[in-house]
Design brief:
Blueprint (H helix, E strand, L loop, with lengths): L40 E3 L8 E6 L5 E4 L2 E3 L2 E3 L4 E3 L2 H4 L9 E3 L5 E9 L2 E8 L20 E3 L1 E5 L1 E7 L11 E2 L10 E5 L6 E5 L1 E3 L4 E3 L2 E4 L12 E9 L3 H15 L4 E3 L4 E3 L18 E3 L13 H7 L9 E5 L3 E3 L10 E4 L14 E4 L7 H11 L35 H4 L5 H9 L5
Parallel strand pairs: 6-7, 10-20, 11-21, 11-23, 22-24, 23-26
Antiparallel strand pairs: 1-5, 2-3, 2-8, 4-5, 8-9, 12-19, 13-17, 14-15, 14-19, 15-18, 16-17, 25-26
Helix pairs in contact: 2-4
The structure holds zinc ion.
The site of zinc ion (ZN) has 4 residues, from helix 4.
């Protein structure tokens, strides 16, 4: 029994094709191993005609369920459950309408209407998990949604060109074939590897294809002469992610964290750079890609890399704010091949410094997958690295899939077999506790 006045329906953690909802006509006393599953019951119906109940969520069309299981004067439907995304709704092998799409905060209207002028109607909110019904959080009156505060910064994509003419080690003007897609001021990297020189330029001359007001050999590099044709990396005027890309990631975050009663707090501040949303100018240490530590080591974590320090310097001082930075390319610092990585997060656990900005942020790249941002947020909320034993279908699994298929890496514990696996048992309660007050 769910009491709509004090309780909520919650989005299931189960793999939606796991068979835990049982057959289309479930026995009256059948039980489901999915503790978030539910069924309808009508007692003493107006007539013995087929008894049915209509379910309406948000502004979608009602779904009709027949209550075919009977015991005396009580009638029950089969089991159904709420799921977070469309792939679960239309999953193969699941009976019609057994998986129903819902978001945190949706109203579920359940209506038994046997005849004209005679209706029994209940409204239940989609929210916290059944395991946390009637908890003592002050948000109880809002049915206890936990709002995830995010801020997003999008860096521009690096652009690549070659010097149009040779420069000495002191020239203050650089010439490129074109400066049409370069930020109005910023840094360029000339040359590559250890022989690279970072140059700050104050302006551009579009007609001449020039970078002007150059300060040579900045950020610990040495000014040197370069031949025409030397490679140049610059901060382009194309952002590494569009607003549409980011909204798709946030949708994914909401779909996943619905399982734990967590929702992204709106509005989300998205910094797409200055005029024209060209992306934030790349700091010198991120021009050639975002470097992050190869090893996640507690308690002997390496200090932040130069790229990480550049991002930390841009961070908000607001506590309890998760920041996500979008870059085009990121790689492990000791990977000479610089293989593209999807994302990296800095949970409080590995912050060995006294700087609170050096934790609770994540960086994701253009190589990210549909679940990457949600996965990185899991690291921050759980305040943990990968764990041995997370099931193949866990959002926290190290090998995040590029799919929202029912058996992809998108479930948050407790998993059906969480106790046996030894992980995930308390994940939902833990991340709900840290969603509004981040681990520090
Ligand atoms: Zn991870």
């Amino acid at each position: 029994m769910v009491d709509p006045a004090s309780q909520a329906l919650s989005v299931s953690n189960h793999v939606s094709t796991d068979g835990s909802l049982g057959p289309e006509v479930a026995a009256f006393d059948a039980v489901s191993s999915d503790r978030d599953a539910f069924r309808f019951e009508v007692e003493n119906p107006v007539s013995d005609d087929p008894v049915s109940v209509a379910l309406t969520i948000a502004d979608r069309l009602p779904i009709l369920y027949n209550l075919d299981a009977r015991s005396g004067n009580r009638y029950r439907s089969h089991f159904l459950r709420l799921v977070g995304d469309g792939e679960d709704v239309s999953a193969l092998g699941v009976l019609n309408q057994q998986n129903v799409l819902a978001q945190i905060g949706d109203d579920v209207i359940i209506r038994y209407e046997p005849g004209t002028g005679c209706a029994d109607r209940h409204r239940i909110r989609v929210c916290r998990p059944a395991s946390e019904q009637n908890n003592d959080h002050p948000n109880q009156s809002r049915h206890d949604v936990r709002y995830l505060p995010l801020r997003i910064t999008v860096f521009s994509r690096p652009g690549r060109a070659t010097l149009a003419s040779a420069v000495s080690d002191s020239d203050q003007t650089l010439r490129l074939p074109s400066v049409a897609d370069i930020q109005p001021s910023g840094h360029v990297l000339i040359g590559s590897g250890d022989g690279g020189e970072l140059v700050h330029y104050a302006g551009t001359n579009a007609g001449a294809g020039e970078l002007t007001g150059c300060i040579r050999g900045v950020a610990g590099t040495a000014p040197i002469a370069h031949a025409a044709g030397a490679p140049v990396v610059y901060s382009s005027t194309t952002p590494s992610a569009s607003k549409t890309d980011i909204e798709a990631d946030l949708t994914s975050v909401n779909e996943r964290f619905a399982q734990s009663g967590i929702k992204v707090r709106r509005p989300v501040t998205i910094d797409l750079g200055g005029a024209g949303s060209s992306g934030r100018v790349l700091p010198p240490a991120v021009l050639a890609g975002y470097r992050f530590p190869s090893v996640f080591d507690v308690p002997n974590q390496e200090p932040p890399t130069d790229s990480e320090q550049a991002v930390i310097a841009l961070r908000s001082l607001e506590p309890n704010l998760i920041e996500i930075f979008y870059v085009d390319h990121m790689y492990k610092i000791d990977d000479s091949a610089q293989a593209p990585q999807h994302g990296y997060s800095r949970p409080a656990l590995i912050n060995n410094s006294a700087d609170p900005r050096a934790q609770n942020f994540a960086v994701v790249s253009s190589a990210r997958k549909v679940l990457t941002v949600a996965h990185e947020i899991m690291h921050l909320l759980l305040n943990d690295g990968h764990r041995v034993g997370d099931p193949r279908t866990a959002l926290f699994n190290e090998s995040t899939t590029d799919s929202k298929a029912p058996d992809s890496t998108k479930r948050i514990g407790p998993y059906p077999d969480a106790t046996a696996a030894g992980v995930g048992v308390f994940d939902t309660s833990k991340i709900r506790a840290s969603a509004e007050t981040l681990p520090g």
